[in-house]
Amino acid sequence: MKEITYIDLKKCILEDNDGVANEIRTLLKDKKIFLWNLMSSPGSGKTTLIKAVISLLKAKFRIGVIEGDIESTCDSKKILETGTTVVQLRTGGGCHLDASMVKKALETMPLDDLDLIIIENIGNLVCPAEFDLGADLNGMILSVPEGEDKIIKYPLMFTVTGALIVSKIDVMDYFDFDLEFLKKNAHAINENLKIFTLSARTGEGVNGFTNYLQKLIEDKANEK
Amino acid sequence: MKEITYIDLKKCILEDNDGVANEIRTLLKDKKIFLWNLMSSPGSGKTTLIKAVISLLKAKFRIGVIEGDIESTCDSKKILETGTTVVQLRTGGGCHLDASMVKKALETMPLDDLDLIIIENIGNLVCPAEFDLGADLNGMILSVPEGEDKIIKYPLMFTVTGALIVSKIDVMDYFDFDLEFLKKNAHAINENLKIFTLSARTGEGVNGFTNYLQKLIEDKANEK
Question: From CA A142, how far away is CA A96, in angstroms rounded?
């Protein structure tokens, strides 16, 4: 009797993705480039934070940015103002970046002249968490107005993240945000998670994050 | 020579979905139940708005809620406090609700004793916009802290929406939010879009939206 041929498309897609992510890792190890993938909900402040990080680190490192967007180029234009190389990835409806898209972006970038590449992922707390992009650091932003309960509702994102940035702390007084609840629950599912609190708008706390990032970039550059 | 069999899985999925959405429409037309599908980013205030709407409309209508969540039941528990019937849909990683999920929820609900069913979709501005759930009204929330540029970055969501609710206006003074830019660009892609501004926390403006919703519910109930 014939058997049913069962194809788990999602598993296939993720396995293919992992292969390309490993190619990216090998390439960027060779080039000594640090890759930081930044994820968050729409409107959490990814672009504003990236601009603040560029402003503090551009004297030390040569920086490139990969901007993921469904349709628009408005974030790329903001990054261009900093004088940084930007590659725009338009997903045309797609809700996340995958490793193949990042590989295509890298192929267009001057890799011999870069130390740090920042990926601004699609604004979405769900699907981006499933796709390994070969990054050295997965970062995510949770902005204060979104609420601390996101740790309960989107656990995968907090699990794949190495650095959680709690942003917009300048408006903390106007929202009921329980930072201790967030920290406790985040460390329960991801004990090594680094947590930073900052406001990219006022600058408060941004140095703490960039010092951490600088150390990671230097460590990779110094690897044998 | 053999030809390649080409299966556009996404097209198949959306066509199957549309068929189920039409079944839902037929069922709820027969039962004279109004179905409101509410979408937004994570943390825009869907649950808080639903609680405010229930509080204002529960004396007039019999209300049920379908709660879509990836993992948790924390929103359902908040809705239960209002005394409303709640069905929890757990997607287990899935980034949107589809019509089959809603149909399954409806099969468990006391349809002869309901006038209004509210769907709280998964917090995501991308994928939920693609799936017709058979709703009489697609609503979306954009909260002030997210910024008005979401109209440029997530255009499909604003196109499939009948009522756009700009929420958290009580913190308008602490953010650079250009309401006129939003209105102008939203009406450019969706000329019949109704736009409401409110704060579910303070109650400001909530009546304007519930009066609009009440009229739609009554119009459907009075349809021949």
Answer: 17
Contact A95, A124 (CB under 8 A): yes
Indicate yes or no: CB of A123 within 8 angstroms of CB of B153.
yes
3-state helix, strand, coil in chain B (%, to 5): 45, 20, 35
Note the pTM of the prediction, 2 decimals: 0.92
Share of chain B above pLDDT 70, in %: 100
User: Is residue B180's pLDDT more than 80?
Assistant: yes
| Tens of pLDDT, residues B133-168 | 999 999 999 999 999 999 999 999 999 999 999 999
Residue A162 has pLDDT above 70, yes or no: yes
Check CB contact under 8 Å for A171 and B174. Answer: yes
Q: What's CA A17's distance to the chain center, in Å?
A: 17
Q: Is the separation of the CB atoms in A117 and A24 below 8 Å?
A: no
d(CA B96, CA B80): 22
Cα of A149 to nearest chain B Cα, Å: 8
Whether B56 has its CB under 8 Å from any CB of chain A: the answer is no
Q: How many DSSP H helices and E strands does chain A contain?
A: 8, 7
Phi, then psi, of A107 in degrees rounded to 5: -60, -20
- Give the pLDDT of residue B93: 87
State which amino acid sits at residue B25. Answer: R
How is residue A38 written in tokens? 């930044």
Q: Are A71 and A92 in contact (CB under 8 A)?
A: yes
Q: How many CB pairs under 8 A join A and B?
A: 111
Cβ-based contacts of B75 with chain A (< 8 Å): 153
Chain A residues within an 8 Å CB radius of B154: 42, 70-71, 123
Dihedral, A207, A209, A214, A217 alpha carbons, nearest 10: -160
Residues of chain A in contact with residue B171, where contact means CB-CB under 8 angstroms, are 145, 171, 174-175
Q: Are B58 and B160 in contact (CB under 8 A)?
A: no
3-class secondary-structure state, position B45: coil
Helix (H) or strand (E) holding A49: helix A46-57
The interface residues of chain A toward chain B in range 177-206, judged by CB-CB distance below 8 A, are: none
ipTM score of the complex?
A: 0.88
Touching check for B122 and chain A: CB below 8 Å? yes
A156 inside 8 A of chain B by CB: yes
Mutate to test the interface with B, among A14, A41, A142 (most CBs of B within 10 A): A41
User: Residue B1: is its pLDDT beyond 70?
Assistant: no
pLDDT at B17 over 90: yes
